Amino acid sequence: MTLPFAAPPPIAPGLILSAPASGSGKTVLTLAILRALRQRGVAVAGIKTGPDYIDPAFHAAASGRPCVNLDSWAMAPSLLRGLARAQGTGADLLLAEGVMGLFDGALGLPAGCDTADGSTAALARLLGWPVVLIVDVKGMATSVAALIAGFVRHRPDVAVRGVILNRVGSARHVAAMTAAIASELPELCILGGLPRQGDLALPERHLGLVQAREHPDLERFLDASARLLTEHIDLDRLIALAQPLKNGPTDAAPRPLPPPGQRIALARDDAFAFTYPAVLQGWRDAGAEITFFSPLADEGPDATADAIHLPGGYPELHAGRLAAGRTFLPSLRAAAGRGVAIFGECGGYMVLGRGLTAADGTLHAMAGLLPVDTSFAARRRHLGYRRARQLSAGWPGAVGEGFSAHEFHYASIIAEAGDEAGRLFAVTDAGGTALGSVGQRRGSVAGSFLHLISAAPGPA
To answer: What are the tens digits of pLDDT across the range 71-82?
Structure first.
């Protein structure tokens, strides 16, 4: 019998690039591989492990395809598989960049939670993809074999299949390390050694890399990185290591969060850039329409929108410009007066508040829609996974509904009014320790410093 519909398109096999520690060169090497494969005609799609808004834009620039975030702590296994399947449809290869060191995940979790701790290893186990370890070998030689052997043998259910030696000193250096690794781990695929190259580095600021859209000559950087990589790394052997996605329950139409409205006006520019592509696609799949506007260009949201979303980003670097505009902030106040649902995350929350103090100590008036004052002059790092339980009715869900979120900012709240009745979320950290209530809701306007990732995940 012939089925009346076509067979589903094949799903690309996947591969994960990880490292023993942060700072090993994962991002630059991932970008170089993505661009080199694209230049060879391979339809390669990027994936970023964990809560990261900046690296995915670099992945997209290098590969020419959107990048998706996969987070084993914040996302249910079925959602992870659904997003991976959607990302791999129509591609030849999926290339995931890990987070921190291979086995590093959320701290403070109870014993037995390492299958959903947000680590790269947890994602590799869940999806069934092999790992290529990127090792910064500056300052070591044949000792690298012992280091790599420890990672290969630490967890038998995490398949470390290949290694790239980064920041090598010479051909002799590579030969000595290759011989030592091959003697200790004859089954490991040694893909090559990349020499130290001082100009192949990306500029950074307080939340990570300077955004891809702000990089002055990104295309030149990507092409130079790809050129160097193809001279020293065996891409054919790397591609051959990729494996199919492991079977398991999958969300057919993965939607991490419900849409805040039918017609959503989304702020997007250098000050408001932190959105997850999977969330936006989930909104579209649910039938919502998204329009964009630039607060830095003093644009207001679409007047016909029934929801306005101000994502995180860097408003603290542009506070004077935002405050001086004649359209953006007044249009937010007017929309609030009409009862339009307005939501701000992290930087967006700061802008919905009364005032934002810049790094130089200058206070800039913001929208004044929420009773909070923030400061980037009084800097303190706030970082970690969060579970949030909603306390008041309105987007993103019903009272009592749970969400997985992440917090990462250096701004501080210096003044806040209101009582518990106006609070948005009750929050715990990754280990379940109560952190109190956060955020504000006033009428149709709400926000907090949390970046929402998904509804709280269920069991595997």
So the answer is: 999 999 999 999
Which residue segment(s) compose the domain that 326 sits in?
Answer: 263-455
Question: What pLDDT, on a 0 to 100 scale, did the predictor assign at position 5?
Answer: 38
**DSSP strand E in 303-449: where?**
307-310, 312-313, 341-345, 355-357, 363-365, 372-375, 382-390, 402-409, 412-416, 425-429, 434-438, 440-442, 445-448
Tokens 């990185």 sit on residue: 225
Partnered with residue 434 across adjacent β-strands are 428
- Which tokens is 349 given? 């929350």
Tell me the DSSP string of 17-55.
EE-SSTTSSHHHHHHHHHHHHHHTT--EEEEEESS-SSH
CATH number of the domain bearing residue 28 = 3.40.50.300
My answer on whether omega of the bond before 396 falls inside 30° of 0, hence cis, is yes
Q: Which two tokens stand for residue 318?
A: 């542009």
| CATH label of the domain that carries residue 274 | 3.40.50.880
**Helices 171-184 + 144-154 axis angle, to 10:** 40
Contacts of 353 (CB under 8 A, 6+ apart): 366, 367, 368, 369, 370, 371, 372, 373, 374
In the block, residue with structure tokens 């009582």: 419
What 3-state class would DSSP assign to 394?
strand
CA distance 354 to 129: 48
3-state SS record for 63-91: HCCCCEEECCCCCCHHHHHHHHHHHHECC
Predicted local confidence at residue 6, as pLDDT: 45
Nearest one of 35, 275, 448 to 46, comparing CA atoms: 35
Regarding whether 233 and 275 lie in a shared domain, the answer is no
pLDDT in tens, 357-399: 999 999 999 999 999 999 999 788 889 999 999 999 999 999 9
End-to-end Cα, the chain, rounded Å: 35
pLDDT of residue 206: 65
Residues 214 and 295 in one domain: no
Instruction: Check residue 295 and report its DSSP letter.
Output: G
Of the candidates 388, 351, 363, 355, the one whose C-alpha atom is nearest the C-alpha of residue 269 is: 351
- Predicted TM-score (pTM) of this structure: 0.92
Shared domain for 229 and 318, answered yes or no, is no
**Catalytic residue at 189?**
no
Q: Write out residues in the chain with pLDDT < 50, as ranges.
A: 1-8, 458-460
The answer to the question of residue 248 being in a domain is no
β pairing state of 445-448 and 440-442: antiparallel
pLDDT score at 1:
31
User: Same structural domain for residues 375 and 418?
Assistant: yes
Active-site residue (options: 67, 113, 189, 346): 346
